[in-house]
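step=encode ok
step=design start
structure_in=
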């Protein structure tokens, strides 16, 4: 299940997308724009829900990293967002 969300972004006109595994929201399916990162988080409204996957565009952990300068769907790009990463 994928859900595109647009929250807390440095630029509210951009968004990213993450895919949900059985227990985590952990893989980028739509990368962030250049010089930004995608943070993947599993968001639960209440404890009985499985939750939805939220991709948020955030500032990079390391702005000089190649994964920040040109983000993709790989693990290095996911780690730039400081969210949950599972690859």
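sequence_out=
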């Amino acid at each position: 299940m994928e859900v595109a969300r647009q929250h807390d972004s440095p630029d509210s006109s951009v968004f990213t997308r993450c895919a949900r595994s059985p227990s985590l929201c952990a893989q980028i399916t739509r990368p962030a724009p250049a010089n930004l990162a995608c943070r993947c988080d599993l968001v639960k409204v209440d404890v009985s829900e499985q939750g939805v996957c939220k991709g948020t565009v955030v500032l990079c952990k390391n702005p000089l990293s190649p994964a920040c300068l040109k983000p993709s769907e790989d693990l290095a790009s996911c780690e730039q967002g400081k969210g949950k990463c599972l690859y």
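step=design ok
step=annotate ok -> Strands lie at 2-5, 16-20, 25-30, 37-43, 52-58.
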